[in-house]
Amino acid sequence: MWTRRNMLQALAATAPDLVLRLTAAPDTVRIRPGGETAVLRYTGQVLRGRADALRPSASYLGPTLELRRGERVRIEFRNRLADPSIIHWHGMIVPEAADGHPRFAVGPGDGYVYDFTVENPAGTYLYHPHPHGLTGAQVYRGLAGLLIVREAQERAWGLPGPEHELSLVIQDRRLAGDNRLEFKRMMMDDMNGVLGDTVLVNGVAAAAFRVSPRPWRLRLVNASNARIYKLAWSDDRPMRVIGTGNGLLSAAEGIQTRPYVVLAPFERIELLEDFGARRPGSEVALVSREFAGPGMMDGMMGRGGSSGGMMGGMMGGGMGGMMGRGMEGMMRGMMGPGQGEALTVARFDVGTQARTAGEELRLPPAPRSPREGHELHTRLAFRHMRGFLDGRRFEMEAVADDERLPLDEGTVWTFANDGGPMSMAHPMHIHGVRFRVLERSGGDAPADLREGLVDAGFKDTFLIFPGERVRLSVVPTEPGLFMYHCHNLEHEDGGMMRNCRFEARSPAGRT
Length: 511
Ligand SMILES: [Cu+2]
Fold this sequence. Notes:
single chain, mainly beta, Immunoglobulin-like, 3 domains, 9-stranded mixed β-sheet, 5-stranded mixed β-sheet, 33 strands, about 10% helix, binds copper (II) ion
């Protein structure tokens, strides 16, 4: 049967505007002075269409894909790794077969062909591997890249052009003395997720940018396995947010001004930053400010706030006092900076040329809100070192009755992070859709992070704190088996992931 949807898919399959090839393979790159670092890396080629659809990266990151809304794209993936892999286009609304679900993972020497039409609006997206149980290790060793969607109207909206924008892919890594990447070293790494002691931006340490004194569009991307950043300017100028995970904010929402922004793993945020407002020749840093972590290790250290961490919950008081500062210092020395530690992300040197004013920004109108006729609930829990979604863990093909969403209709999907004593913050991600955050309630979003949560706009990943309930509005438009999971990559690999199915409601009303 030919529906409009599979007609479109058939067209995309037969006549792509762009044909790209991405190959994942081992490589070596220079991350910081000293020896080269062995990494895994995507490299790419344009086989047909615009040569500017791929922008190579200067380090281990894959090439940046520059796609246009409405474009029909074919991407040929080649796996030259020693392990199975598959690419997921994070945030992109693509057909089921192009989503990079782990059941599509291909072995060494094999490949996979993706066909999709770029449906998402202008924004900042990502691609990364998604083989079950191996995602954390493969991303950590270098497999990730940016995917930017552009629209012709962006200039008319008054946004700085591509020549005045910068993308910062932020990752933390632990580098040994010989610059080898160190992945998991201890049990804690599975529980907290792997945290590094060195911040890399676009794959290099101590990143610095030279900017002219004018407005710039900054795309801030957290591609870290587990680290949450509290991003701020070192000179305390407020951050002007123009876009969140899945596209620009609407005219109705306007620019959101925040003292800092919280960016959880695989969230993105776009800023309009006027470097012309600073003294010519001055230097400003993008930093991650200290916060009392919502993670488990911090609970053990007695920094966990009201929710407590593992030991806090077990011993009724947190271990900070028991362990004392000396012990805590020793633990930190072993672990590197914990969740919530102050870090420098990147430096910006403002040029001395004459200041240029920006255009007036006219954000696009808001799409109509859907009527939500369906409800879904998911309870998050963490116990025995593993995450659970409604008491369940990942099974490759399994989807429960309460994991089905009606196609082309609004669903209110409520996530509650209250399923156990070992609660911690989880960055939750849903494949194949973009959603709105309707409401946060019931929890204790830490006071020192609250102001930096940007729930406006459309998102595909959101952070949920211990004790919190977050209600989302979602309208699936692609039928098939997709997934939802924690995007702390060690939690995801540990099974805090489930399938969900988007399907047309049968006439009887049963979904
Ligand atoms: Cu998690």
